[in-house]
Amino acid sequence: MIYGIGNDICDLRRIGETLARRGDRFAEKVLGPQEIKVFQARRARVESRGIAYLATRFSAKESFSKAIGMGMRMPMTWRDCEILNEASGKPFIRLHGELAEWFASRGLQAHVSVSDETDYVATFVVVEQPRLAAKENP
User: Fold this and answer.
1) Measured on CA atoms in the order 7, 9, 14, 19, is the torsion positive or negative?
2) H helices within 46-121, ranges in order?
């Protein structure tokens, strides 16, 4: 059963301007421990790739916060929600701390899709609650 759906669109230029204004503090506020490593590596190779990575993570976290229905308030925090990639490139969501506990206690599962173009990033998250579906359909 679908618990929630969230989507977001983000202007890459806005993220680039914010990063230029606030420096690495902005990336450190938004990105979790694994994400920051990827961001730094991509940015070191090509600045625009780092900005695109930061924008996709920012947008996906916005989508996730909408899908769980709480926005950016506890236990949802930027750094406790990481958008990582499997070896195949498929994105997935890894949660930490209180957010992970809150999410697991409800038996939720999340699915994320990330798309980026020259100027924009779009993300979509579906959160489902499989246990409820199983109880309703014996």
Assistant:
1) positive
2) 47-67, 97-105
Q: Is position 8 annotated in a ligand binding site? A: yes
C-alpha to C-alpha distance for 59 and 39, rounded to whole angstroms: 15
Per-residue pLDDT tens digits for 93-117 = 999 999 999 999 999 999 999 999 9
Report the CATH superfamily, name and number, of domain 2-136.
4'-phosphopantetheinyl transferase domain (3.90.470.20)
Read off the amino acid at residue 89: G
Given a cut of 60, whether residue 136 has pLDDT beyond it is no
Where do the structural domains in the chain lie, given as residue ranges? 2-136
Question: Is this structure's pTM higher than 0.85?
Answer: yes
62 annotated as belonging to a binding site for a ligand: yes
Burial letters 31-61, b for 16+ CB under 10 A, else e: bbeebbebbeebbeeeeeebbbbbbbbbbbb
| Secondary structure of 13-29 in HEC code, one letter for each residue | HHHHHHHHHHCHHHHHH
Judge whether 15 and 55 are in contact, CB under 8 Å.
yes
